[in-house]
Design a protein that fits this description.
Blueprint (H helix, E strand, L loop, with lengths): L1 E8 L2 E8 L11 H19 L6 E4 L7 E5 L2 H4 L2 H20 L4 E6 L1
Parallel strand pairs: 1-5
Antiparallel strand pairs: 1-2, 2-4, 3-4
Length: about 110
């Protein structure tokens, strides 16, 4: 199961951590994994390409997968557009969770 955890400080999302594997299908055909990966990377790439903020990223070896963490410097976290993108990501992941709850869980951490 994928665990996607959003961390908060003073009502601002400060990071996203994604851990685990969906295992909803064979490698290369796992639609839950593909959807989560696409949303996460599109969001993080947008922060850099559209807003010029460089995310701080930690991730597992691409061949192993199963772990991704991203945050930004405090100045970027205070930006309303960054928060909009984080909330967009959260909404997207929660939509996946509604349909495929046995493969993904979205959590909040203070």
């Amino acid at each position: 199961m994928i665990q996607a955890t959003f961390s908060y400080q003073d009502d601002l999302i400060t990071s996203i951590e994604v851990v685990g594997h969906a295992e909803s299908g064979p490698y290369g055909y796992d639609i839950v994994c593909s959807a989560v990966t696409a949303l996460v990377f599109a969001t993080i790439n947008s922060m850099e390409a559209l807003l010029a903020y460089k995310p701080i990223i930690d991730q597992a070896d691409p061949e192993e997968g199963g772990y991704f963490y991203a945050t930004l410097e405090q100045e970027a976290l205070d930006d309303e557009q960054v928060q909009l993108l984080f909330n967009h990501l959260k909404q997207g992941l929660e939509s996946i969770e509604e349909q495929y709850g046995e493969f993904i869980q979205v959590n909040n951490r203070a």
